[in-house]
């Protein structure tokens, strides 16, 4: 009987059923936490969700709910910087897009307003792609400064164009789907999107991690600590 129960717990059906339940529960917790904190914990919550789902994708048997809250605490230095940066981008680009749309509606034809709208949206898309790679990057590399992480994420976005475009397409598909079916947002929205992104990014970021580790061991690596030997004076 005990053996049969253990087999059921280790079965793929139970494993993935539990994963779906965890994703739904985490999505509800994240939305409630973000709303109750007046969006102060929105980006920290996203960082924690990425970490929890990273563990799921890599088959790490780590408690998801405990990890979710501990990750916000342990990654707070990274989280608050991301919160300030992310909210600043959302507020600035959102305000500019709003005024462009208002100006376009108020005038029959204004080429400058249309160019402004296209430019702001293009900048937002680029920043979104870099942000997506940054938050995934955080799960694979823990030794870089926040500024260096942004630079490397921008470089990854440039070199891995197909992966960046794919993440953008998935985001657009999710956005349209949630717009059509808004009632599923509390249950399956952020966690489902992040699960797909982490799954698709796993192979590429693992390759990047191996490349970075090999580069870090090279003698000419500028980031290695330098040892200065002083010669004894005669």
How would the blueprint of this fold be written?
Blueprint: H1 2-9, H2 12-36, H3 42-57, H4 64-74, H5 76-106, H6 111-140, H7 146-159, H8 161-180, H9 190-216
Helix pairs in contact: 2-3, 3-4, 3-5, 3-6, 3-9, 5-6, 6-7, 6-8, 8-9
Structure, described:
The radius of gyration is 22 Å and the shape is globular. 78% of the residues lie in helices and 0% in strands. The protein contains 9 helices and no strands. It has 234 residues and is mainly alpha-helical.
What are its keywords?
234 residues; 9 helices; single chain; disordered C terminus; mainly alpha
Structural class: mainly alpha
The radius of gyration over CA amounts to 22 Å
Shape: globular
**What does the largest sheet look like?**
none
Terminal residue distance: 81 Å
SSE sequence, one letter per element: HHHHHHHHH
Summarize model confidence as the mean pLDDT: 86
Oligomer: single chain
Helix content: over 70%
Number of strands: 0
Discrete helix count: 9
Tell me the strand percentage band.
Answer: under 5%
Unreliable stretches: 222-234
